[in-house]
Amino acid sequence: MKTVALLSQKGGAGKTTLALHLACAAKASGLASAIIDLDPQASAAAWHDSRADEEPVVVPLPYTRLAQGLDTARAGSFPQRLPSHGRGIPHPEGQKRV
Ligand SMILES: Nc1ncnc2c1ncn2[C@@H]1O[C@H](COP(=O)(O)OP(=O)(O)OP(=O)(O)O)[C@@H](O)[C@H]1O
Ligand SMILES: [Mg+2]
Questions:
Q1: Domain ranges for the chain
Q2: Ligand 2 centre and the CA of 94: distance in Å?
């Protein structure tokens, strides 16, 4: 699994836009990709919700759960279709949802 982190303290620098484009480009190349959205504004998740296509998967997480999110991605356990009641992921230690 390759992990790409897009970070900048500067607002409006294009982090979200670049992440979405990279994920879509990966999908167009036949690669599975998932976006972990650590921004409390969750604008990547809002973008996902505005689309009919479920992929790329977008998983909003609090930054304190990044390690678990990466573990879940490594295990290939991000669901293709996320539950409509919450855009959580299965917790690695059980059925708890984050
Ligand atoms: N390469 C680009 N050329 C022109 N406009 C761009 C480019 N990348 C992003 N933008 C525009 O810049 C604005 C900010 O982009 P974006 O929301 O991706 O930034 P961000 O770094 O994620 O912001 P925030 O810090 O608020 O999360 C958006 O209106 C976006 O459409
Ligand atoms: Mg952003």
A1: 15-74
A2: 30
Measured by CA distance, the residue closest to atom 5 of ligand 1 is: 14
Spatial contact of 44 and 37, defined as CB atoms under 8 Å apart: yes
The closest residue, in CA terms, to atom 23 on ligand 1 is 12
**Cis preceding-peptide flag for 60 (omega within 30 of 0):** no
Residue 44: exposed, middle, or buried by beta-carbon count in 10 A (0-12, 13-18, 19+)?
buried
pLDDT in tens, the chain (98 residues): 999 999 999 999 999 999 999 999 999 999 989 999 999 999 999 999 999 998 999 999 999 999 999 999 999 887 655 444 344 444 444 433 33
CA–centroid distance, residue 60 to ligand 2 (Å): 12
Residues having CB closer than 6 A to ligand 1 are: 11-17, 39
